[in-house]
Design brief:
This protein has 16 helices and 10 strands. By secondary structure, it is α+β, with helices and mostly antiparallel strands. It folds into 3 domains: about 10-55, no CATH class; about 70-160, DNA polymerase, domain 1; about 175-385, hpI Integrase, Chain A, CATH 1.10.443. Helix 2 packs antiparallel against helix 3, helix 2 packs across helix 5 (about 130-150) and helix 13 (about 320-330) runs antiparallel to helix 14 (about 335-345). The longest helix has 20 residues, at about 130-150. The relative contact order is 0.10. Pfam families: Phage_integrase.
Length: about 400
C-alpha cells in the first residue's frame, strides 16, 4: 500500500452488532488496523470512514493534526513569529483575537476549506473593512501554511481564494496647514487636554509623522537636542501576558533617524528644561510620560486624543491622520515618495529601490516643509499662544 492509503473495508458480525475493520499504511510506513463498532452494518462502515478521515493525514506529523482545533493552530502560528515589529505583532494578535479565533477557533483544521474561509473573509470585509479583511487573509495564509507543513492540511487553501470585495472604509484625509495650526492652537486652551499633557505630544506627531506607539515609547536618550534629531528605535505596545512594554523596532524601515523642525526642537528643549536635568541624565525616561508617570499606553492615549480632537471640532482626526498629513505635505512640496517612506518608516515595495538607494537618511525634507507650522501663531512652553515664530 502507498503511504496514507487504506485497504478494503471488511465488516464482521459481533455479539452486539457489527465491526468495520481496515488496514491503513501510515506516513511512518507502519501498517495499522483501524476498527469501529456500531449497531448496524451501514453505521459501522460510516463510523470507520469518518475515523479514517479524521486521523489522516499524519498523526506522526507533529503536534498539529487534521483534527486539531483552529484555536491551537492560531496560537502555534503566532508563537512562531519572529523578526517582526511590535506594532505588526500587535496587529496580528488583534486580528486573531477580534476576528479570526472567535469565528473559526472551534473548527477542526481539516474543516478550513476554501469556501469556509471565503465566506468568513467576505463577512469581515463587510463589517470591518477591506484592509482588516486583507490582514486577516494574510494571517490565515500563515496559519494554513503551518498546518500544511504539519500535514494537517493537504495544501494551503488561502492560495485558492478569490479577491476580497466589499465596501471600503473612507480613507482618512489629511489636514491642511491652516487646520494644523487651528487644532494645535485649540489644544492650548483645552484645560483637560493640558492636564493630560496632550498639546506637545500632538505637536510632536505633527512635526514627525511618528506612529502613536513610537511617540509613546520615545526616550530622552533617543533625542539629540543639539543636532535637532530624533532616533526611532522602539515603540510602546500592550502585549498579552506582559502588559505595557517597550519593544525594539525590528525592521530596517522602522529604525530611522529624523531631522526635527526647529520649532519642534525648541519645544523639546523647553520640555527637557521643565522636567529637570540634562537629556543624558534622563536616559531611558519617556519624553511623553503618562500624566501620572511611567509609560503612556497608546490605546488610552488614543482615547484621550479623540476627546480632545472632538472638543476642538476635529472629531474625524486620529493620530494616524498626522502621518498622512506629513506625507501629503511632503508630496505637495515636491519631495519624493522615497523620502516620505523614510520619514514614516515604511518599507519600500520595490526591491531595486531598497538595494540601490540609501535608507535611514535623516534629511528627508520633512523638517523644512513642517517649518510652516511656525509661520503664524506658535506655542510657548506653558501652553499659551504668543505671536511670531517660536524661539
Amino acid at each position: 500500500m502507498a503511504l496514507g492509503t487504506a485497504g478494503a473495508i471488511r465488516i464482521y458480525k459481533t455479539s452486539t452488532g457489527f465491526r468495520a475493520r481496515v488496514l491503513v499504511r501510515d506516513y511512518d510506513g507502519h501498517v495499522r488496523a483501524v476498527e469501529r463498532n456500531a449497531a448496524s452494518r451501514i453505521a459501522a462502515e460510516r463510523a470507520l470512514k469518518l475515523a479514517l478521515r479524521d486521523r489522516a493525514p499524519g498523526k506522526s506529523g507533529g503536534e498539529l493534526t487534521a483534527d486539531s482545533r483552529v484555536l491551537l493552530l492560531g496560537e502555534a502560528w503566532y508563537a512562531g513569529l519572529d523578526n517582526l515589529s511590535p506594532i505588526t505583532l500587535q496587529a496580528y494578535r488583534d486580528r486573531l483575537d477580534r476576528q479570526l479565533l472567535p469565528r473559526l477557533g472551534q473548527l477542526r483544521i481539516r474543516e478550513l476549506s476554501v469556501g469556509i474561509l471565503d465566506r468568513h473573509l467576505r463577512d469581515i470585509a463587510d463589517h470591518h473593512g477591506i484592509a482588516t479583511a486583507r490582514m486577516c487573509r494574510s494571517v490565515l495564509s500563515g496559519m494554513c501554511a503551518l498546518a500544511a507543513r504539519h500535514d494537517a492540511l493537504p495544501h494551503n487553501p488561502v492560495k485558492d481564494l478569490g479577491r476580497i470585495n466589499g465596501r471600503p472604509k473612507t480613507a482618512p484625509r489629511a489636514l491642511t496647514l491652516a487646520e494644523l495650526r487651528q487644532l494645535r492652537a485649540a489644544l492650548t486652551y483645552d484645560e483637560k487636554a493640558i492636564a493630560r499633557d496632550l498639546p506637545e505630544l500632538v505637536a510632536f506627531l505633527m512635526a514627525t509623522g511618528l506612529r502613536i506607539g513610537e511617540a509613546c515609547g520615545l526616550t530622552w536618550s533617543a533625542v539629540d537636542l543639539e543636532g535637532g534629531l530624533v532616533e526611532v528605535t522602539a515603540a510602546a505596545v500592550r502585549v498579552r501576558g506582559e502588559g505595557l512594554a517597550i519593544k525594539s523596532t525590528k525592521t530596517d524601515a522602522g529604525r530611522r533617524t529624523l531631522i526635527l523642525p526647529r520649532w519642534c526642537t525648541d519645544m523639546l528643549r523647553d520640555r527637557a528644561r521643565r522636567s529637570g536635568g540634562t537629556t543624558g541624565g534622563r536616559g531611558a525616561r519617556p519624553v511623553f510620560p503618562a500624566p501620572l508617570g511611567g509609560w503612556r499606553d497608546p490605546s488610552n492615549t488614543q482615547a484621550d486624543l479623540r476627546d480632545a480632537f472632538a472638543a476642538a471640532g476635529f472629531d474625524w482626526v486620529t493620530s494616524h491622520v498626522f502621518r498622512k498629513t506629513v506625507a501629503t505635505l511632503m508630496d505637495q512640496a515636491g519631495l519624493s515618495s522615497r523620502a516620505a517612506a523614510d520619514q514614516l518608516g515604511h518599507a519600500n515595495t520595490s526591491m531595486t529601490t531598497d538595494v540601490y538607494f540609501g535608507r535611514k537618511i535623516a534629511a528627508t525634507g520633512a523638517a523644512t516643509v513642517l517649518e510652516a507650522l511656525a509661520d503664524t501663531e506658535s506655542l510657548n512652553s506653558t501652553g499659551t499662544v504668543r505671536d511670531g515664530v517660536s524661539k
